[in-house]
Amino acid sequence: MLRTRLSGYLFLLILLLSFNSCKVGRFIYYNFADITDHKIFPSRPLQNEGSKFSFPTSPSGKSPKITQIENGKQVTFEKYLEDNNTVAFLIIKNDTIQYENYFKGYDKTSIVASFSMAKSVTSILIGCAIDDGLIKSVQEPVTNYLPEMKKNGFDKVTIEHLLQMTSGLDFNESYHNPFGDAATFYYGQTLRKDIPKMKLKRQPGLEFEYVSGNPQILGLILERALKGKTVTGYLQEKIWQPLGMEYDGSWSTDKKNNGLEKTFCCINARARDFAKIGRLYLKKGNWNGKQLISESWVKQSTKIDTVNGSSWRYQYQWWLPSKNGDFMAQGILGQYIYVNPAKNLIIVRLGTSVGNTNWRSAFTQIAEGY
């Protein structure tokens, strides 16, 4: 009887919360983010109606040399990947696929949500907008594009502060809290209203703190700068079609009609097409002879910088795994685009979770063997 009564109370509480907040209702229903979330959110399509670019596959490709011990025994690389919840793993060296494997029913045509790898793509688009003269400089204050945020002190926050995660933004990054900011941004439907409500907890330029509010503000800045063109449309024009993406993709939005792209996450694509984003930066913004984004932006985006609170491990929405010139895009469930210029190497890893491994260490170990 007590258990039945408690269950009834819990149901009523959930029902009340759901009515009170669609965001909370969706959080409770879906429970936690998943790589199939492209199915539950509205989105804008990414299409390439032009020629397709395909990486050739090496006939002598082989599994990487990486040592993994389980229960006292060395396991194969494939078992290592599968045991750590991988669904796709791709290694490209000298523009040729050296290794490609899929697990858990996935294959090269399977769509996977990018999660925070989209932050790196958002950064690319900011660079394109600067190249196109739509944004003047990373030193511009946020309020040049979002004047409504001046009342909360954002006239002191620059675009570069957002790119480097040094804005001092007061943002709850927890994905386990249905009332947190991350849940509001991920499950909410009012991003354009929620963004101007954000506040600062410290002066900008003092300290690095990774929070998803920064790239979402960049997304609204980008939308304002584009003056009527969608962020997805700009990605398609500047990157998706020029890179010759093999498959259609999409970018999830907060709502169906006139939605805003969730620029802190949520580009939906296949492993081979994610790899092309890595190749663009590996080639310093040049794609088969055409400069799609300035080389200076690529260098600035991936260099080590510790000035004004910036972390050496992070620059312009790209992670820096070491001080050896490599860099990567990273998503919460273990999505990675790893680029090692010294080895002319790209690795894409997609998974249902990070698993029980250190992927940064694994990537550098793999790179050493190629």
From TrEMBL:
Domain of life: Bacteria
Keyword Hydrolase: yes
One Pfam family it belongs to: Beta-lactamase
GO MF terms, alphabetically ordered: hydrolase activity
Annotated keywords: Hydrolase
Keyword set includes Hydrolase: yes
Domain Beta-lactamase-related: start-end pairs: 84-368
UniProt name for this protein: Class C beta-lactamase-related serine hydrolase
Organism: Pedobacter psychroterrae
